[in-house]
Amino acid sequence: MTIITTFSLSSTNPFSFSFSSSPSINRFRFNPHSSFQLSTPPQPKHTGAIIIGAGLSGLSAATHLNSHNIPFLLLDSSNSVGGRVRTDSVDGFLLDRGFQIFITAYPEARKVIDYDSLNLCKFYSGARIFYGNRFHTVAHPIRHFFDSVKSIANPIGSIKDKLLIGSNIVRVLTKSDQEIFDSDEIATIEMLKKLGFSDSIISTFFRPFFGGIFFDTELETTSRLFDFIFKCLAVGENTLPANGISAIPEQLAASLPTGSVLLNSEAVSIDLNHSESLQSVKLRNGDVLTSELGVIVAVQEPVAVNLLAGKNNKINPVQRKPVRSTVCIYFTANRDQIPLDPVLYLNGSGKGIVNNMFFVTNVAPSYGPPNKVLVSVSLIGLFENESDDDLTVKVVQELSGWFGEEMVRKWKHLRTYRVGFAQPNQSPPTDLKKNPRVEPGLYVCGDYLTSATFDGALVSGRRAAECLLKDRVVTLV
Ligand SMILES: Cc1cc2nc3c(=O)[nH]c(=O)nc-3n(C[C@H](O)[C@H](O)[C@H](O)COP(=O)(O)OP(=O)(O)OC[C@H]3O[C@@H](n4cnc5c(N)ncnc54)[C@H](O)[C@@H]3O)c2cc1C
User: Fold this and answer.
1) What is the CA radius of gyration of the chain?
2) Ligand 1, atom nearest to 106 Cα
3) Pick from 38, 115, 364, 450: CA 20 to 30 A from residue 340's CA?
4) pLDDT attached to residue 475
5) Which of 73, 84, 88 to mutate for ligand 1's pocket (most ligand atoms within 8 Å of CB)?
């Protein structure tokens, strides 16, 4: 039997859609009568679904609803999409808001992102580690086999450590992502010790490398996330899109219907009218938007907790833990003032404040004007008690010890980014597969429900949209 239910949204609504369901077929048809332009009044007040937050999770939810022809409005309080994945253009340089890398093996990203049009620029697969007053290379054992053989006797861990890296690649490759996220968890540091890695390789390589990825040099982050990232790094490349990291969210936004994204639109409250099965979202400017199918809250965890206060919210964090923060300092230099390889430099010395750095234009020349170099330096934590100027002086002093004062003193400071909320804290206990349903008609997504990665955010957005669609099918059948 096929049941056909048709919604008629109000006559002023730019959308109409019909929903047909049968035990085997669920099909939505979306007919935009007219498209509405971003920030051009009159804005639609009523739609199919409302998504609050246009970071990767909100964009993923929108992409999924759009692929099912569900009308939606995607709101963001800021002036652009992308959330934490943004790039600024400053004096001809592209500055990502914090050090970010796109790993091509991210499984969800492979499904929803068109890699070809991003013009991905690759890092060297490995790292150069500053330890004992000189640099040592750690290389991917397959992609840079000869470098890896050459590095076998260097002081970054013992020969046993290097063999263990190989066996750990095999260990994670034999597990599905599902198995990784379902596995027992301990802190990454405990797991590395349990696997037999020496203190030496933990402090010279794992702390700066994975500490830089998790913004957690104590390596308290769950072993599940370590295994997931380790697996992605083993099979994928570390890259930057030629037009900046924001090219990733911008690509997703570009495929959404014209006018479905409302910027500078901050949601201040959500109201669920259970009797009429209608959800409304109030904006900072007083406007009220209503939705027929549901609201997806795709904001950072602390904002979500506030927006959902008083709701039947089971999504609250398992326990309150300090969030992960970082500072990223950009410098410019001339081409003759730097080494030329596209490699990530790590601080393995255990001293100083720099965690990692790289010459961005060596990886992606499009990040700077011709013959100019962009230098990116990352610190872990927020350094709240130190001014930008003080941090810059310390970084220049420290890197002079790495590359020589003659080179580093010529670099010019360009901009400092302090990112207070870079990632949620994902130390155990974690649940990286949280249910996105707060209640029928209200859903959440964001990296705090899955893994604090681009991929986790994309997965969580899709799951929230799937949940909304499923609930509506159940209600209507
Ligand atoms: C410096 C830095 C480096 C990173 N590096 C990597 C990396 O190399 N690899 C990796 O995989 N991941 C990295 N991450 C993590 C990754 O960026 C995040 O996990 C992911 O982007 C989170 O997406 P999200 O949609 O969950 O949240 P967000 O990107 O935070 O999106 C939330 C959105 O909600 C909007 N919003 C908030 N409140 C409201 C409101 N009231 N009304 C309307 N809109 C609102 C915000 O403006 C924002 O756009 C990094 C993060 C940072 C900050």
Assistant:
1) 24
2) 11
3) 115
4) 59
5) 84
**Average pLDDT of every residue of the chain:** 88
Cα–Cα distance between 297 and 367 in angstroms, integer? 33
Query: Which residues are CB-contacts of 180 (< 8 A; sequence separation ≥ 6)?
Result: 172, 224, 227, 228, 231
Test site for ligand 1: of 265, 269, 287, 300, most ligand atoms within 8 A of the Cβ: 300
Rounded CA separation 425/324 (Å)? 6
pLDDT for 312 beyond 90: no
Instruction: State which of 100, 123, 238 you would mutate to test the pocket of ligand 1, scoring each by most atoms of that ligand within 8 A of its C-beta.
Output: 100
pLDDT digits (tens, 9 = 90+) for 336-390: 878 989 999 999 999 999 999 999 999 999 999 998 999 999 999 999 999 999 9
Q: Give the three-class secondary structure for 444.
A: strand
Exposure string over 335-363, b if 16+ CB within 10 A, otherwise e: eebbeeebbbbbbbbeebbbbbbbbbbbb
Centroid of ligand 1 to alpha carbon of 350 (angstroms):
29
* Three-class DSSP category at 456: helix
Interval 134-147: pLDDT, tens: 999 998 888 888 88
Residue minimizing CA distance to atom 52 of ligand 1: 422
Distance, CA of 428 to chain centre:
20
- Rounded to the nearest 5°, which phi and psi values hold at 399? -75, -20
DSSP assignment, residue 190? H
Asked whether 84 lines ligand 1 (CB < 6 A), one says yes
In which band, very low, low, confident or very high, does the pLDDT at 319 lie, cut at 50, 70 and 90? low
Q: Is residue 75 within 6 Å of ligand 1 at its C-beta?
A: yes
300 CB near ligand 1 (under 6 Å): yes
What residue owns the CA closest to ligand 1's atom 53?
Answer: 422
The ligand 1 atom at the shortest distance from the C-alpha of residue 81 is 49
Looking at the DSSP assignment, which residues form a beta bridge with residue 290?
46, 280
Digit-coded pLDDT (tens) for 98-109: 999 999 999 999
Q: Residue 151: is its pLDDT beyond 90?
A: no
DSSP 387-405: -HHHHHHHHHHHHHHHH-H
Asked if 318 and 429 count as a contact pair (C-beta separation under 8 A), the reply is: yes
Tell me whether residue 413 is exposed, middle or buried, using C-beta atoms within 10 angstroms of its C-beta: 0 to 12, 13 to 18, 19 or more: middle
Any atom of ligand 1 within 6 Å of the Cβ of 21:
no
Q: Say how many residues make up the chain.
A: 477
Tokens read off for 166: 């190989």
Would you state the pLDDT for residue 40? 47
Complete DSSP assignment for 314-364 = --S-SS--PPEEEEEEEEEEEGGGS-----EEEE-SS-SS--EEEEHHHH-
